[in-house]
Write a structure and sequence with these properties.
Two copies of one chain form a homodimer. In chain A, helix 7 (120-139) runs antiparallel to helix 9, helix 9 (285-321) packs antiparallel against helix 10 and helix 10 crosses helix 18 (553-570). In chain A, a hairpin with a 5-residue loop joins strand 4 and strand 5. In chain A, the strands form three sheets. A five-stranded mixed barrel of chain A has the order 4-5-12-7-6. Chain A has a two-stranded antiparallel sheet with strand order 1-2. The first copy, chain A, is α+β, with helices and mostly antiparallel strands. The radius of gyration of chain A is 24 Å and the shape is globular. Among the domains of chain A are: 7-65 and 73-151, Orthogonal Bundle (Butyryl-Coa Dehydrogenase, subunit A, domain 1); 156-283, Beta Barrel (Butyryl-CoA Dehydrogenase, subunit A, domain 2), CATH 2.40.110; 441-584. In chain A, 57% of the residues lie in helices and 11% in strands. Chains A, B: Its EC number is 1.3.8.-. Chains A, B: Residues 75-156 form the Acyl-CoA dehydrogenase/oxidase N-terminal domain. Chains A, B: Belongs to the acyl-CoA dehydrogenase family. Chains A, B: Residues 466-591 form the Acetyl-CoA dehydrogenase-like C-terminal domain.
Chain lengths: 596, 596
């Protein structure tokens, strides 16, 4: 079925939760107010609904294929990418200096969601280019920037991230690819990289690989890793493409989902060495790669929201159409569309509440990113930076884990038809499963949340967020409607559970690392659940205000009901999770290895 | 990877939770004590590990295919089915009168688990034959029994269940297939049936279809449905196969999982009418079909346990082998197998606890089934019948829903490799998703739990079970170890949550059906969680007793840790679910249809 961008909900978040008007006060974003957001999102919706969404199922049926080192993408992808590039979508958030549109992430994130709802396999190509652009912007030499950035920003070329090797997945200390310095300042790169998304394809003239490798003699471990640009085709001084570089696609993976997206094994240096250019300084590669990864982690979180939205839309359409059985309340005397059955509503409301909650969380995080990078006041930048960094593992970890549940419910709503591939619901279920794995598994996100984001500052950022949530509870109680008060009660219980866990984590990470890391993923899930639920609570306050003003009553009532559902059905999980984390750590690691 | 039957755990359950010695006191089961159980399970393990497990991945790669009405199953399946039949496995639980072995379900269920762990797609064929056999045993005429039963029990022929039609999935009132009475007492059957598992295949000489259809002039709705036997090949008086009957496979589905199992669209009567024989009386078809379905629902619950076990075994093997990163507690100074990481242990423990808990629940339910059918004392039969009937939706609904989480964790433990089809973990994830759908979706199980199993007797059976659980809590507190007391605390909280929900359900089903059915699936999940956790608590008591006696210390310690994990990490979900069900019903159905 075709995708319909949830423009109203996106714009509600951008306006009321992310406060676009405040973003538009930041120098450089003066033009990026609500009206711009609306215009960009509407245009973006047209493109994704019209061009990319119709290609999604085709990508599943006719995945990318490899023949003699050449990857042919799904029919229609190449032309769609041309349109994507010509529409300027690749440059949306990138600096105008290099041909981008310089829009804030607050707007860009919503566009990213549309792209991924319409066609997640396609969207991965621009997603990786974004990462490459950010790494070059931050650490690339002026020369590298001059040669590569404009072409990447325009979508004429695409970018990749080359981290993983057969023995080095989450553990980058084990990277073995090597780079030998050459007299002319370039390097010769050798090694095998796996799981390289769009590592080879036919949608752009050139591919700019960003590759982690060790310079001969570098220290062991992650402190000896450097970052290189290795183009597929060499680039002449005139910007024209020259000879083929010594990097080759030797196979692509046969995956459960995102089949249209070619996942390449790349072989570097089999014929004398691939010519590479160092990015920044030697041995600081991991640091630069984290720039790409942080950008990509947020974007993968948005992928979770995007596929959840799509699964929801498809399930709603089916539930309104499929006629089976009479409603239990006797309101209809004949077999009725299944959306009349309470359990089908429960499934749809669960899908909806998760999706809207995570969208709110991502939107607010995006606004913090914009302020952290561009606000004139250093203190404001710092606060927003801390908030954003706390949000990244939640956006990535929680939104992707929830997408597994939502896409599973999506199949379930379809009943037996959901299991038949032609229906299309199964594709979302299969596609989604990669999201909790790539760009750092949920456990890796949780390590980040525990280590860098909670223990390091003694739980200070976490507690500051808890303080903001407490203020929302007070506002809800002050508002005083039955829904607001009920939501405040659940929010309070979840926030108190969160604070308990933060104390447990901050207090024990050094002394009892096993106990803390035994609960790291549950902590992430609790935190994500809380923050998404908090955004729903904030949305409820706005909706009640707007409703009182008579603005868009149907939408506002639905928002209130969805917020209430989030509180009563999802936030209610939090206290039990606290018990598991704080009181149930020992039994996680108690079993002898031989007993498994 | 190859499957290794968890014989020790199965026999622990059969001996200590299901009390096989009590089952063996029932007339007819005198030979079916622990020693028999052990001997049968060991033999069964050999067959499934050696013959069926190696074919599982092949079935995913080379699914059944249809050409000119003929279905060719996966290479190796036909021969494996021959071995299955020759080994007497089809007749395990069926009466000796018809060539079966007459063993109790307490033993048969464990064999069913093995079969499904080894090869779920294959196992579906015998599973459906079991249903056909039970329906004929209960309602078939002596003539039908004489012609069909022995051949089905021996595995020479196989059986199918034909319920679903394009417009009639969960809603059997909408069945349109029709049967015209013929002067000779037979019927001519016409109609289209979809989703017919092993509706056509090449593994047996004949296929015995059990088909729901309406006799001309029958009442509308479910009270006008009759059940027919329609053989693929006519059977002569001498038992020899005759002409092809007018039932034909016109297509098979392209599914997300269980690909080796052909899911047929069957066309009845395109050439004058398929000859059918009525089972029992006209218009009582649904009643008889429920016999097949109840048997099949329990069996599908066991499929959930089976695939969870397989996913767990595969994840453990990978986690012990895959080396990535150093343990957070510094216990190993180099990169270590990932099983050393607390979050990997958490995932494996979750998989293990769910699987063992549900296995315990299924084992206890099987013993109740045996007593309910065969115990000489009518009161004992009645009590066990009530208990078993309460368990069926839990075994089916909870064990299959948990299998989705467990197979998802199985992929997650594998990281990126899990998403690659060649690894095999993805197959379990894809295969499992059908389990919450077929033989009645989770919502259908929940309707059964709410309506027939809870409201009808005013919550009496549910409260009786709660009373038994309370007794286990007392025993745990009396035992007094830290683990026992901790488990008792979680069990008490979960049991109290359950009782609250039972009161809510029993008290409101008639007056506020929307409110009750809005929480029907959460109620099922809470009840299943509680009962499985209760079995883990009972297992802990046994294990501490055995440990004190010095019996199999490693196994008993692992059981205690797993029970503790179940309590602290899974039972802790119960109170939050109570809140959602009892206090959060209204928002489930509040949203206007147009707002979706």
């Amino acid at each position: 079925m075709s995708y319909k961008a949830p423009l109203k909900d996106m714009l509600f978040d951008i306006q009321h939760l992310a406060n676009i008007d405040q973003v538009a006060q930041i120098p450089g974003f003066e033009e990026a107010g609500f009206d711009t957001a609306q215009a960009v999102l509407e245009e973006c919706a047209k493109f994704n609904e019209g061009v990319l969404s119709p290609l999604n199922r085709e990508g599943d049926i006719n995945p990318s294929s490899l023949k003699a080192g050449v990857v042919t993408t799904t029919p229609g992808f190449k032309d769609a990418f041309k349109q994507y590039a010509e529409g300027g979508w690749q440059g949306l958030q990138h600096p105008t200096d290099f041909g981008g549109q310089g829009l804030p992430k607050t707007i860009g994130a919503a566009c990213g969601e549309m792209l991924n709802s319409a066609n997640m396999s396609f969207a991965l190509c621009p997603l990786l280019s974004d990462g490459a652009i950010e790494a070059l912007l931050t650490a690339g030499s002026d020369e590298l920037k001059a040669v590569y950035l404009e072409k990447l920003v325009s979508g004429q070329w695409t970018g990749t991230m080359n981290l993983t090797e057969p023995q080095a997945g989450s553990d980058l200390a084990m990277v073995r690819s090597r780079a030998e310095p050459q007299p002319d300042g370039t390097y010769k790169v050798f090694g095998t990289k796996i799981f390289i998304t769009y590592g080879e394809h036919d949608m752009a003239e050139n591919i700019v690989h960003l590759v982690l490798a060790r310079v001969s003699g570098a220290p062991e471990g992650v402190k000896g890793i450097s970052l290189f640009v290795v183009p597929k085709f060499m680039v002449g001084k005139d910007g024209k493409l020259g000879a083929r570089n010594d990097v080759h696609c030797v196979s692509i993976e046969h995956k459960m989902g995102i089949k249209a997206s070619p996942t390449a094994v790349l072989q570097y240096g089999d014929n004398g060495g691939a010519i590479g250019y160092i990015v920044g300084e030697e041995n600081r590669g991991l640091e630069y790669m984290f720039i790409m990864m942080n950008s990509a982690r947020y974007a993968v979180g948005v992928q979770g929201i995007a596929i959840a939205e799509m699964a929801y839309q498809k399930a709603v359409t089916f539930a309104k159409d499929r006629v089976q059985s009479r409603p239990v309340d006797g309101s209809i005397k004949a077999s009725a569309p299944i959306i009349h059955h309470p359990d089908v509503k429960r499934m749809l409301m669960t899908m909806r509440a998760y999706t809207e909650g995570c969208r709110g969380m991502a939107s607010v995080a995006a606004a913090a990113y914009d302020a952290s990078h561009h606000h004139p006041d250093a203190e404001v930048r710092k606060q927003n930076q801390a908030f954003y960094e706390f949000m990244v593992p939640l956006v990535k970890g929680y939104s992707t884990e929830m997408s597994l549940e939502v896409t599973s419910l999506g199949v379930q709503v379809h009943g037996g038809m959901g299991f038949i591939e032609e229906t299309g619901a199964a594709q979302y279920y299969r596609d989604a499963k990669i999201l909790t794995i790539y760009e750092g598994t949920t456990a890796i996100q949780a390590n980040d949340l525990v280590g860098r984001k909670t223990s390091r500052d003694g739980g200070q950022t976490a507690k500051a967020i808890a303080g903001q949530i407490q203020a929302t509870e007070a506002a809800l109680n002050k508002q005083g409607s039955a829904d607001a008060v009920a939501v405040a009660k659940r929010l309070k219980a979840a926030r108190e559970a969160f604070v308990d866990v933060v104390d447990f984590v901050a207090g024990n990470t050094k002394a009892s690392p096993n106990a803390v890391f035994a609960g790291s993923v549950p902590y992430l899930m609790l935190a994500g659940n809380l923050v998404a639920g908090w955004q729903m609570a904030r949305a409820l306050l706005v909706a009640q205000e707007q409703l009182a003003k008579g603005v868009d009553a149907d939408f506002m009532k639905a928002k209130i009901t969805t917020a209430r559902f989030y509180a009563d059905h999802l936030l209610t999980k939090a206290p039990g999770m606290r018990d598991s984390i704080v009181e149930g750590a020992d039994c996680v690691t108690a079993l002898a290895l031989e007993a498994f």
